[in-house]
Write a structure and sequence with these properties.
- This protein is mainly α and 166 residues long.
- The chain has one domain: Four Helix Bundle (Hemerythrin (Met), subunit A) (Up-down Bundle), CATH 1.20.120.450.
- 59% of the residues lie in helices and 5% in strands.
- It has six helices and three strands, in the order αααβααββα.
- The protein has a three-stranded mixed β-sheet.
- A hairpin with a 4-residue loop joins strand 2 and strand 3.
- Helix 1 packs parallel to helix 6, helix 3 packs across helix 4 and helix 3 packs antiparallel against helix 6.
- The relative contact order is 0.24.
- InterPro entries: DinB-like, DinB/YfiT-like.
- This is DinB-like domain-containing protein.
- It comes from Granulicella arctica.
Length: 166
C-alpha cells in the first residue's frame, strides 16, 4: 500500500456507517454513467501502455477483493490482535491474469457493483472501536478507518480518470 488517496480523518470523526453509505451512493451514481458506455469504447485504452476502462474497472474489482478481506480480518481479529498483516498485490499482473480486456463490459461492471455493494454493507457492520486496529503492510501501517477511507478515495481517483477520457 505505497500509494494513498485519502487524507486521514481523525478516528473520532469517522463513522463506519457513513463510510458504507458513501460507498453505496458512489456505486449507484457511477453505474448510471458506466452502463451508458459501450463495450467497444470500454475496450479502448486512452494511450499505449494504459489500461482500458474494462481493465481499470477490473483493477477496481481486484482492489475490492483485497480490501474486503482486509476489512473482515480486522473486524474479526481478537482484541489481543490489534494488528493484522496484509499483503500487497501486483496490480498489472492481476489485471493481465484475469484478462478483463476479454470479458464482457457488462460482466465487469456487474462484478464491481456487486462486490462494492457488499463492501458498503460490511463497512456499515464495523464496530467504531475497531477503526483503530492496524493493517500492517510490508512498507507501512494504517488503521482500519484509514483503510476504508482510502479505499473509497482510490475508487474516486480512478473514476475521475475514466470520466476524463470516456
Amino acid at each position: 500500500m505505497a500509494v494513498t488517496y485519502a487524507h486521514e480523518t481523525p478516528l473520532a470523526e469517522l463513522d463506519p456507517v457513513e463510510l458504507g453509505i458513501r460507498l453505496a451512493e458512489l456505486v449507484a451514481e457511477t453505474m448510471v454513467w458506466l452502463e451508458g458506455v459501450s463495450g467497444l469504447r470500454a475496450s479502448v485504452a486512452p494511450a499505449e501502455g494504459k489500461w482500458s476502462a474494462k481493465e481499470t474497472m477490473g483493477h477496481l474489482v481486484d482492489s475490492a477483493v483485497n480490501n474486503l478481506q482486509r476489512i473482515v480480518r480486522l473486524e474479526v481479529a481478537l482484541d489481543s490482535e490489534l494488528e493484522v498483516r496484509a499483503q500487497g498485490y501486483e496490480q498489472d499482473g492481476w489485471v493481465r491474469a484475469q484478462r478483463y480486456a476479454d470479458k464482457e463490459w457488462s460482466q465487469v461492471l456487474e462484478l464491481w457493483r456487486t462486490l462494492n455493494e457488499h463492501i458498503g454493507w460490511t463497512m456499515r457492520q464495523v464496530s467504531r472501536e475497531h477503526l483503530a486496529r492496524i493493517c500492517a503492510f510490508p512498507d507501512t501501517q494504517v488503521t482500519m478507518g484509514f483503510l476504508m477511507e482510502d479505499y473509497i478515495a482510490h475508487i474516486e481517483y480512478h473514476l475521475r480518470a475514466l470520466r476524463e477520457w470516456l
